[in-house]
Amino acid sequence: MDKHINKIGVQSTEVNSESIFFNPEVDGSDTVAVVSAGIVVVGTILTAFASFVNPGVVLISFGTLAPVLWPDPEEDPKKIWSQFMKHGEDLLNQTISTAVKEIALAHLNGFKDVLTYYERAFNDWKRNPSANTARLVSQRFENAHFNFVSNMPQLQLPTYDTLLLSCYTEAANLHLNLLHQGVQFADQWNADQPHSPMLKSSGTYYDELLVYIEKYINYCTKTYHKGLNHLKESEKITWDAYNTYRREMTLIVLDLVATFPFYDIRRFPRGVELELTREVYTSLDPPGLNAGPIPEIDFSYLEDHLTRPPGLFTWLSDIELYTESVAEGDYLSGIRESKYYTGNQFFTMKNIYGNTNRLSKQLITLLPGEFITHLSINRGFQTIAGINKLYSLIQKIVFTTFKNDNEYQKNFNVNNQNEPQETTNYPNDYGGSNSQKFKHNLSHFPLIIHKLEFAEYFHSIFALGWTHNSVNSQNLISESVSTQIPLVKAYEVTNNSVIRGPGFTGGDLIELRDKCSIKCKASSLKKYAISLFYAANNAIAVSIDVGDSGAGVLLQPTFSRKGNNNFTIQDLNYKDFQYHTLLVDIELPESEEIHIHLKREDDYEEGVILLIDKLEFKPIDENYTNEMNLEKAKKAVNVLFINATNALKMDVTDYHIDQVANLVECISDDLYAKEKIKLLHAIKFAKQLSQARNLLSDPNFNNLNAENSWTANTGVTIIEGDPLYKGRAIQLSAARDENFPTYLYQKIDESLLKPYTRYQLRGFVEGSQDLELDLVRYGATDIVMNVPGDLEILSYSAPINPCEEIETRLDTTCGALDRCKQSNYVNSAADVRPDQVNGDPHAFSFHIDTGTTDNNRNLGIWIIFKIATPDGYATFGNLELIELGPLSGEALAQVQRKEQKWGKNTTQKREEAAKLYAAAKQTINQLFADSQGTKLRFDTEFSNILSADKLVYKIRDVYSEVLSVIPGLNYDLFMELENRIQNAIDLYDARNTVTNGEFRNGLANWMASSNTEVRQIQDTSVLVLSSWNAQVAQSLNVKPDHGYVLRVTAKKEGIGNGYVTILDCANHIDTLTFSSCDSGFTTSSNELAAYVTKTLEIFPDTDQIRIEIGETEGTFYVESVDLIRMED
């Protein structure tokens, strides 16, 4: 025997799942009391949540928790709270001043008083609902609530926050439980006292409940980490001290905080089953290891070897224990433990600790569903110089297991030692032997073999790991309440993606980098909605497969911090996690294993984080549907506004507001009339704000082609009753060809625009092909939208009458469309944040910037939609043009460059147009006999007018390049000249006795033989006679005794002559003859090559004359025939 060993003895140590957390050598009665109280409170709340199926019943009465926190009213009522404070002082080796302690205890006892008074009034109201009892319970509730709001800050003083954290957390739980009841019953109290003013509603208390859930979770979690980090950074900190704080504050604080989110009664109106998957560790075993001169074992070494890194949740299937003999007895030399993932018990993993090569071993096997909840260890001890006792020799370990409400014992025996036995008992079971709901299960049995430096002595060290009994070994899904299954209970995950939780989730998290698989089992055949509780710093696509069903979703970012070296999970707050529904109305078979696969569809990128905490399964029934409709509508309405203000978020589109309005209108009037009215007011206000900021005129298409509205042609149709639109939408049909497009356009007046500002055009396209959108200011921004018409309209429920069997969504012959029965884009869109425009092919958003503004120039913004192809089509609506804000930086510089370039080009175009305008104007002036343009010069021929018109048409940029019906840069100049040309034509027509003498209308008003025609030659209509028997004639009425001038512009080709003969009823005949030799004559010539103009004066004797045109042979071209009466 080593000289340092003075005595060998025996100790019997009992370790059970209630007392595993206390070390009899260092923990006093205060520790036992407070940790026991914390465990009981958590167990009580977990049980209450799981059984809360009747919303008319209180979740947890104050009378249930009071005996735990104020156990004996006959003794000191502050006893347990004083023990909480003493426990905090011991853990952190600090002291709370007497004054602070007394103030805190006074407030804590005050909480008991106000809660007691409230509960008495509540019970009176329950027994006898009346105005008086309702008034009293309302007053006492508000008094209790005010007491918490006012006095909770006294428990979070900066100097003592970590020491008072246990008290704060327990008090916070009492406050949340109180607010939970306020949400439940406030409206009923108000209904029983209808004439009482200024009463808070259930909705008001619900808003406050959400605020305090978030506040308490964040504060408790941050303060816990503050205390833990303080210990870790302390000098000479031992692993036992660090682990004791982590273990006991997890049991008292973090376990309780993990239940806080489920006080949200509107999200969990029928209760919830939740699980705590965190793992806690006992103190070092054997006790007294670090006493006396034995050197302290390295902190990091113990942490690395006695605790597990984050990983999937495991279950023990067997433990094989190995011993080795030394002179003094046997010590535990090795352990091999087998574990399996949830639902995968046929595939086990083995962990080996110490030396397992020895022959002395024994296997402890656990059946499926059997768990170790208790163990007792009989040890031999040695007294070594400077050390009282070192319990390192193992004699016997008794494992108590629990399965199907029965307890069993399995023994591990070592050769008995005939030495005196010394027994040290851990604290007795506080909850009784049947308190299974408060128990823990052994989950980890790590072992370290350690050799004392001053003695030839090996001994084993271990710290047992335990998990909470709330964890279900089958991932069983409840048929009556919501079931929260932590994703760390998966059986497969790739890419090393399990990380430590932030503290308020009850366990570790999955960082989904690739895929994850989990098995679940439904307790009965039922339909469920499956949701995900997650956090992400970017939009990430995820797919889920549940048996034969599946879906793909785009998870939206919930926080903005990037994953880098400075980011830790502790940086996340409660609100950084959100729920997202993956599947709705999915039927799960009874008692069958269901494989659920989650996959990240994008390529994992470092720093783009997706953290998943839990899968949620909510049973679907009528109540669930109504409740979800309400909660979905509330969430959708709240996200429209900026931080509970009356300002609309910039990224909220008009279409999104309409779809949220559909959600609100689908809320049950019978169950939630008040909430519905409140939400309707909010959504109507949002719509008003949307309309007020929309710069478009007539965005609802009420008056097409009216003043201050849209301009459209005949291919545009207004549609109503489309399930995808709450208001009117517009439909553009195919074009005949590119020269005759279907169009819709509007100009935003310059007076509505601000300088150097960005504007955004937004809308929603149901489907389109070749839809062109142009935003025009400094040139056109041409955009083509081909949007698939893939928005299906599916009914959630079976039709209840024939009129609901609408075969096409535009069929409204059976009455108004019931949008509440549709699961179209409307409902899915309202469940996401409204800034998804860029990620949705149906929702478009394009911007246009202004530079300087000039109301006189009135450049404005043109918005043009058109279809220019025979196969094109489009249906769209909810158009809006909104101001985004002033430009800066590169955007400002870019619009300045664009405006400058546009200005130079415009100036150049105007200068060119001015020259052409001057030349055309001069030519036009020569057509008229006076400056007022009331009379043509006598020698003005029609060809002169055409020549002048050609000069006018040399002016460019008369119409928009985008759409030819829209005026362009030089439109005004062009129209001024073109109006004068038209005036000249009108005057010309008025003085010409011959009708259609210029053949602009073909052979109308002429009698012509079949072998004559009118051709377009150099943009001029010309009569062509190419046969000797061709003849064209017209009879005219004239005034006798007046002189007329017959003027003909024509050309003869080939041999023979062409002639124009005029004759009256008195057989007076005059003829103008043309031949191919006329081009050499000195008669006035036309711009058409070789055309000549000849005139003839006549004085008819009768009131009718006849003009005949013919030829002898060859071809005769006649450009115009004029008969002009001579002036007096």
From TrEMBL:
Output the lineage of the source organism.
Answer: Bacteria, Bacillati, Bacillota, Bacilli, Bacillales
Q: Where is the Pesticidal crystal protein domain?
A: 81-264, 273-471, 483-621
Q: Could you say which protein family the record assigns here?
A: Belongs to the delta endotoxin family.
Protein name per Swiss-Prot or TrEMBL: Crystaline entomocidal protoxin
The Cry1Ac-like domain is annotated at 999-1076
Describe the location of the Pesticidal crystal protein Cry domain by residue ranges: 706-885
Entry-linked SUPFAM superfamilies: delta-Endotoxin (insectocide), middle domain, delta-Endotoxin (insectocide), N-terminal domain, Galactose-binding domain-like
Q: Which GO terms describe its molecular function?
A: signaling receptor binding; toxin activity
What are the TM regions of this chain, as residue ranges?
A: none
Q: Could you tell me the keywords of this UniProt record?
A: Sporulation, Toxin, Virulence
- Note whether tRNA processing occurs among the keywords: no
Q: Which organism is it from?
A: Bacillus thuringiensis subsp. finitimus
Q: Which GO terms describe its biological process?
A: sporulation resulting in formation of a cellular spore; symbiont-mediated killing of host cell
Gene3D superfamilies recorded: Galactose-binding domain-like (2.60.120.260), Pesticidal crystal protein, central domain (2.100.10.10), Pesticidal crystal protein, N-terminal domain (1.20.190.10)
